[in-house]
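Model the whole thing, not chain by chain.
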Amino acid sequence: GAVVSQHPSRVICKSGTSVKIECRSLDFQATTMFWYRQFPKQSLMLMATSNEGSKATYEQGVEKDKFLINHASLTLSTLTVTSAHPEDSSFYICSARSRGSGSTDTQYFGPGTRLTVL
Amino acid sequence: KQEVTQIPAALSVPEGENLVLNCSFTDSAIYNLQWFRQDPGKGLTSLLLIQSSQREQTSGRLNASLDKSSGRSTLYIAASQPGDSATYLCAVNGQNFVFGPGTRLSVLP
């Protein structure tokens, strides 16, 4: 099956620094990628939807200037958490939808990135 | 390595029926289990979250149960409606977040 990778799997950073998380579709082209986060003991929540070559669409309550999403190619989307604070500590997971799959919708999920901001 | 399976892979029912979706996982060392709904062209919508210490969660017409020791969860949908048509995913949060392959549900009017 299709594979989506995320890098890094875990990251620890100091408050005030920026962290970039990469999401790659390894064996297919992804026109759309989704970014989610999950706080401890809470549900996974959709943050934003990114389409290749266009601006991401953010869910209500998600600061687009803080969570910068770039989907510059059909195989790579990046999420940059700018000026990270401890409250940004969370589990971030991406998913990618394949291009021209012919089915109604098939999404493949990355393994997630656990961010800890000290 | 955690493996998550879902049965059935697809299900088509007439409107008004009650139905059960099944999720199984191999490693019982989990923090929680979630059920999601996936609509075409959209991201995931979280339906229910069950912590490892819980047995059951309910939201409206949805009820999810968890038997961690046997590695099973079920999602019960009461009085199904055409708007319930979607793919339903369960996901297990342990060392990693592992999703099942999903059950594609069609509710016929």
